[in-house]
Automatic annotation (TrEMBL):
The keyword Transit peptide applies. It comes from Henosepilachna vigintioctopunctata. It is found in: Mitochondrion matrix. Keywords: Acetylation, Fatty acid metabolism, Isomerase, Lipid metabolism, Mitochondrion, Transit peptide. GO terms for molecular function: delta(3)-delta(2)-enoyl-CoA isomerase activity. This is Enoyl-CoA delta isomerase 1, mitochondrial. The lineage of its organism: Eukaryota, Metazoa, Ecdysozoa, Arthropoda, Hexapoda. It catalyses: (2E)-tetradecenoyl-CoA = (3Z)-tetradecenoyl-CoA; (3Z)-decenoyl-CoA = (2E)-decenoyl-CoA; (3Z)-octenoyl-CoA = (2E)-octenoyl-CoA; (3Z)-dodecenoyl-CoA = (2E)-dodecenoyl-CoA. InterPro entries: ClpP/crotonase-like_dom_sf, Enoyl-CoA_hydra/iso. GO terms for cellular component: mitochondrial matrix. GO terms for biological process: fatty acid beta-oxidation.
Amino acid sequence: MFLRSALSLWPLARNGTRSYSSTGVTKLVAVTVDDQTGIATVNLQRPPVNSLNLELLTELSSSLTDLEKNKSRGIILKSYSDAVFSAGIDILEMYKCEEERVTLFWSALQEVWIKLYGHFAPTVACINGHAPAGGCLLALSCEYRVMVKEKTIGLNETKLGIVAPQWFIASLVNIIGQRQSEVALTTGKMFTTEEALRIGLVDEMAENTEDAFSKSLEFFKKFKNISPFARAQTKAFIRESTIQALVKNREKDLKMFINEIRKENVQKGLGQYLESLKKRKVS
Ligand SMILES: CCCCCCCCCCCC/C=C/CC(=O)SCCNC(=O)CCNC(=O)[C@H](O)C(C)(C)COP(=O)(O)OP(=O)(O)OC[C@H]1O[C@@H](n2cnc3c(N)ncnc32)[C@H](O)[C@@H]1OP(=O)(O)O
């Protein structure tokens, strides 16, 4: 009953889904809520590779707030593209960046992670494309991961000459354990879907996006006979210490980020990495 009235805030589309965007105009994040199940699909749509810039993160953050307020029954996070789930942080947010913008940018990333990692309803990452670094972080924040075959995922920060912050690391350790994380992080390992499945970094492999989406929907059925309150509170207890570690240190984490990326050698490395991405395209 409550769900129905909450969902009525969203305009109903002909196919039984309600669409909305946090800004009133669908832009970088499109949310549709299935009228029957109350499950929201959050589609990242920033071509070409869904790299995470301030605007995308701001929209994602307000979409997550709206879903929390509207008591969504669950979230499926996916990409508009069948090639890339998210290329991670937009390198241009870190390369030759202005202090004011980079402060807003990193704060928005922290905010998204806190909201997604701690979202009360079940969350699934439908990883229908490559998911390096920040893209992997978004997937790790969800409770369940379904990944399309022959894609790649991982926290490859060291390959860019940067260090993954503690909360990135904790998100990985909580899923694959300390030993596997240490090897993966220090080597900047990008796992194929098959490898990721083998070490438990993802939970299921899918043939294609459609299959991944339908497997993502199946996940919610596990909670058919479980009290939503008991489920949500258990999740909160399990995730609380990881979330609090960042919440209590947001300012310190922000300063560390700004300090780190402004280093001359880091800026040089980021510049070279950007160049290599462009060259890779030509060859
Ligand atoms: C004491 C010290 C303590 C320290 C504490 C910590 C302090 C903080 C440290 C900082 C941490 C910062 C964390 C960062 C995490 C990140 O997310 S960094 C980003 C990492 N991302 C990547 O490495 C992905 C790079 N991209 C790719 O590998 C590929 O693009 C792809 C596999 C995703 C897709 O391949 P394909 O479909 O072939 O597309 P492309 O032709 O490669 O790309 C199209 C287009 O997009 C541009 N692009 C790709 N990725 C990015 C990106 N991340 N940012 C910006 N732009 C990107 C690419 O250059 C192409 O552009 P053009 O069309 O050529 O203009």
